[in-house]
């Protein structure tokens, strides 16, 4: 697998964003620009998590682009905690699309975990910039005036739930000490889909910038909820394929499985074309089954 990528830095929405790209490796008509796929990573990942899909899809004629989102990796991490709402991140992505594709162009989008949440919001705010979406692991959660996010998680899981703990500053220090830099132990058993070199790549980036930016996404969940009150009845009106692993904890959140399959998900995402539940995989579905996920993405986008 050719793991060489082009890297660039783009000024967007008041920050400098690091972007990895892999251009099509197949010959085509030079007068026709290749379709673009924008990949959005989750926590605690980076652009790097999409390396398998970028290689596979670029070999099939797509221009594949994956940024480090605001606060991650080599992208700027604003100091202000409240600079990490979904509105900020969607603004970054619109600036990125304008810069690398054009200010009137649409792109295909693929998201996972926090990247899936941001993708849902991108489609809510700017459906005019998205051809179609393949989203993974996190379903669209319509705005509910009675369900402030952190209060809801506390009610279900208690104060020790990781999202609740992420609201506290000291958790940043604990994460950094446990995961980053020289505390990483090469003898730690890794899942089969994650190599030692993969972990060392992540460590090198988090050792440099820490976890404050990524954790700030969680610390802005309530703020984003407040800012999105005008979208109480909004629907996602772009074509969507949703993929989830049957071992993913998000699939087993109380009420989630029923919501996905009883028609309510479709009612909020009316152009939902397909829901795929893959057996035997957990949360990091695109890393655990890279070839299968690449095929799902290609098969869906090929219809547009």
Automatic annotation (TrEMBL):
Taken from the record, one Pfam family name reads Abhydrolase_1
Q: Which UniProt key words apply to this protein?
A: Hydrolase
**UniProt cross-references to SUPFAM superfamilies, sorted A to Z:** alpha/beta-Hydrolases
Q: Which GO terms describe its molecular function?
A: hydrolase activity
Gene3D superfamilies for this protein: alpha/beta hydrolase
Q: Which domain of life is it from?
A: Eukaryota
Q: Which residues form the AB hydrolase-1 domain?
A: 35-290
**What family is this protein classified in?**
Belongs to the AB hydrolase superfamily. Epoxide hydrolase family.
**Protein name (database record):** Alpha/beta hydrolase fold-1
Q: What is the lineage of its organism?
A: Eukaryota, Viridiplantae, Streptophyta, Embryophyta, Tracheophyta
């Amino acid at each position: 697998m050719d793991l060489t990528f082009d890297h660039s830095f783009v000024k967007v929405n008041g920050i400098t964003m690091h972007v990895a790209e892999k251009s099509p490796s197949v010959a085509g008509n030079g007068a026709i620009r290749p379709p673009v796929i924008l990949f959005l990573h989750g926590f605690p990942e980076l652009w790097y998590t999409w390396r398998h899909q970028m290689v596979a899809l670029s070999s099939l004629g797509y221009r594949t682009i994956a940024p480090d989102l605001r606060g991650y990796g080599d992208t700027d991490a604003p100091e202000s905690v409240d600079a990490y709402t979904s509105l900020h991140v969607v603004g970054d992505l619109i600036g990125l699309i304008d810069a690398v594709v054009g200010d009137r162009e649409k792109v295909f989008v693929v998201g996972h975990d926090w990247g899936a949440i941001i993708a849902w919001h991108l489609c809510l705010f700017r459906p005019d910039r998205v051809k179609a979406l393949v989203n993974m692991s996190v379903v669209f959660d319509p705005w509910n005036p009675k369900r402030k996010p952190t209060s809801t998680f506390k009610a279900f899981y208690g104060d020790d739930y990781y999202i609740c703990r992420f609201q506290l500053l000291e958790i940043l220090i604990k994460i950094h000490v446990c995961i980053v830099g020289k505390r990483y132990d090469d003898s730690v058993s890794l899942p089969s889909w994650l190599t030692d070199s993969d972990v060392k790549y992540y460590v090198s980036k988090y050792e440099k910038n820490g976890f404050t930016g990524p954790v700030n996404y969680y610390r802005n969940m309530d703020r984003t909820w407040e800012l999105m009150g005008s979208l109480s009845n909004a629907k996602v009106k772009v074509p969507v394929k949703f993929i989830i692993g049957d071992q993913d904890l998000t699939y087993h959140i109380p009420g989630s499985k029923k919501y996905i399959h009883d028609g309510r998900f479709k009612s909020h995402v009316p152009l939902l074309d397909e829901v795929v539940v893959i057996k035997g995989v957990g949360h990091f579905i695109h890393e655990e089954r890279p070839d299968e996920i690449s095929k799902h993405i290609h098969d869906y986008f090929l219809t547009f």
